[in-house]
Amino acid sequence: MKRIAIVVQRWHDEVVGGSEALAWHYAELLAPHYAVEVLTSCARDYRTWANELPAGESQHDGITLRRFPTAWPRGPWFNDLHRRLLADYARRQPGAEGPLGWRPQLAEEFIRAQGPWCPGLYDWLDAEHERYACVLFCTYLYPTTHFSLSVVPPRKQVLIPTLHDEPPAYLPVYAAAARACGHRIWLTDAERRLGRRLWQVDEGDVVGMAVDTRIADARNPHARGETSYFLYCGRIDEAKGCGELIDAFLALRRERREPVQLWLTGSEGMPLPSHPDIRFLGFVDADSKSALMAGATAFVMPSALESFSIVTLEAMAQTAPVIVNARCDVLADHVTRSGGGITYSSRNGLVDAMRQALSLDTDARQAMGSSGRRYVLEHYDRTAVAQRLQAVVARACAQA
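Structure tokens predicted for Glycosyltransferase family 4 protein (400 residues):
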């Protein structure tokens, strides 16, 4: 059995993160056909990259994990560079598409400082890459991908960028690395279009990710009850648009007499207001999350920076209408192609979208939810995704 590796910046079964979930999902899909190893850091927290997990080899569900310690936590130097990056990005002309004018040395200093910086990972791949038929790199942003690419021959590289339209993506070093890769996997057509626009590269395969389509158990205590609620699942963070979501919900709540609540699950990366109609449920298991989605008036994804949005598609699979940020092409594509939800492009637009979701009668809600579920079943079935993924990996292994 050929040996392959998947590199990702962190992984733990309780980590809430899209690229981390994607890396493990691909590991599971490939494990029946290859000896899969996941190469990652000892960190759990992306804000500090502190070493919290033991270094070395371990097993999880029959898949080998190799963890490498971070050399330092994220510190003030990264914050300084990040502020400079945001300032340079903000000074660009409106609508400008070209790269930021950062020299490679400065850009790579930013990537190192961002973390996690794992020298042992690069040493391992430098010494061991000949023993891997191919290496998959999940998400473009972090040094675990960017610097590992330099020690693995391009013919063995499979880059999964999970590309967002965000300031770091305009650094020329990322575009150069993506163009030099032997193989690329895009999660959606919209992400590939973004790759063409930002990096002048769109070669590669649209593979996507399989979504759990099992209908939630109606006996689950989180299944639909008397209270109308909007649901958000994931990292609760300003960068995910959660501030705008909370502001919009509070505006809606002030104008409504009928009870409605906002429920949030996942990891709390920003303070939440103390309000009787805002409920933070923390980390919930998969069955409870599915039941929460099935019972929601609508699932809301306020992020403008998504390359796939697993949770949005999971909600659609549970026949929940979805409300998504149209400033994200990926999310807008999901809703436009499916008819399974509502898009908005401003804070006031989000309030209007929530009003619209609350006004749906039973038949309209069911029709919208069924359209979303059909879309997920047609495009993100586990067997179809596995076949697309295996075809890309097989081509990369054949060139090893």
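The mean pLDDT is 93.
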